[in-house]
Design a protein that fits this description.
This protein is mostly helical. It contains ten helices and no strands. The longest helix is centred in the C-terminal third of the chain and has 21 residues. This is RGS18 protein.
Length: 201
């Protein structure tokens, strides 16, 4: 089967795995734990996803161009992000800063799922939908997925039933749930975080 990660051509996530601790952890895996090792490798590759500026190029989340470095953000711009969660997500630099914050809380899978859904909804043909939907499902939705998000059983089951013939809206309920979680829970903590406070100075 084709590697599903290659279905998103803007993701060049062939990361180097030459660190000693990584090799040791793979070598020590017992045969019956091989599937977990594979999931761990996939998670490590996906963790690089938002660190690459090319991932954001041409996406619907903000202005065209390369990802703005947080260091170049003016305090005035950062203040505007505090006005609303949508404003934060609409700015590339804001999205980058929020992602960095979520990584400190080990919950970056939420923003990565949200971005993947935004990309999915930009699909221009039915031919694109199935492989992209399966990639999202296998990465974020199915049980023991490498970046499994926290959604209710009903929503997860509904997606599972639709995944063989996906529509543009098949992830909407899950995306809305994760958006609400980030807006009500993660966003207020982001505004109190050192990551955000540094941008205001």
């Amino acid at each position: 089967m084709e590697n599903p990660l290659l279905l998103f051509p803007q993701l060049n996530i062939s990361a180097s795995k030459d660190k000693a601790y990584y090799k040791k952890s793979v070598i020590k895996e017992e045969p019956h734990k091989a599937s977990k090792a594979g999931a761990k490798q996939k998670r490590n590759r996906l963790s690089l996803l938002l660190q690459k500026p090319e991932f954001h190029e041409g996406d619907p989340l903000g202005k065209a161009g390369s990802l703005t470095k947080a260091a170049s953000v003016s305090p005035e711009e950062a203040v505007k992000w505090g006005e609303s969660f949508d404003k934060l997500l609409s700015e590339k630099a804001g999205l980058d800063a929020f992602t960095k914050f979520l990584k400190t809380e080990f919950s970056e899978e939420n923003i990565e799922f949200w971005i993947a859904c935004e990309d999915y909804k930009q699909s221009k043909s039915a031919h694109e939908l199935l492989p992209k939907a399966k990639t999202i499902f296998e990465t974020f939705i199915q049980k023991d997925a490498p970046k499994e998000i926290n959604i209710d059983f009903h929503t997860k089951n509904d997606i599972s039933q639709k995944i063989s013939e996906p529509t543009l809206s098949c992830f909407d309920a899950a995306q809305s749930s994760i958006y609400s979680l980030m807006a009500k829970d993660s966003f207020p903590r982001f505004l109190r975080s050192d990551v955000y406070k540094e941008l205001l100075q």
